[in-house]
Amino acid sequence: MDFTTQPYLSLETCRKNGEPMRTPVWFVRDGDRLYIRTVAGSGKVKRLRANPRVRVALCDRVGNVTGPWVAATGREVRDDPALYERVDRLLDEKYGEIKRQLAAQAAAEGRVYTILEIRFDE
């Protein structure tokens, strides 16, 4: 699967009752890990904190899955400015001007972001 050049990833996290929730997200690959930058207080972050077991699959921009699901483990990365800068640079390289425009708008609105790290299960 091409977790390098494809633009969208469906991230499946689970609610406390076990119900899966799928969210299409932008992502970057760095070595054997995927990284997602997202709003710190979003539902996917809260669900991931409660249960690190996730599944990922390539998808289109509205979340229609286009590849097989892959089991993985996720975590929120906190207090790592170097990683945050690296992920931000990789997102700039992958998504270009649209990413920069959206980031500027988010900053103007005062949004706080966090990084999610996804590791594939072996």
Summarize the helices and strands and which ones pair or pack:
Blueprint: E1 9-14, E2 20-25, E3 28-30, E4 33-39, H1 43-50, E5 53-58, E6 70-77, H2 81-108, E7 113-120
Antiparallel strand pairs: 1-2, 1-5, 3-4, 4-7, 5-6, 6-7
Name some characteristics of this structure.
122 residues, alpha+beta, Pnp Oxidase, Chain A, seven-stranded antiparallel beta sheet, 2 helices
Description:
There is one protein chain. The model has no long low-confidence stretch (mean pLDDT 94). Strand 3 and strand 4 (33-39) form a beta hairpin. The chain has 122 residues and is α+β, with helices and mostly antiparallel strands. The protein has one domain (9-120): Pnp Oxidase, Chain A (Roll). Strands 2-1-5-6-7-4-3 form a seven-stranded antiparallel beta sheet, with helices on both faces. It contains two helices and seven strands.
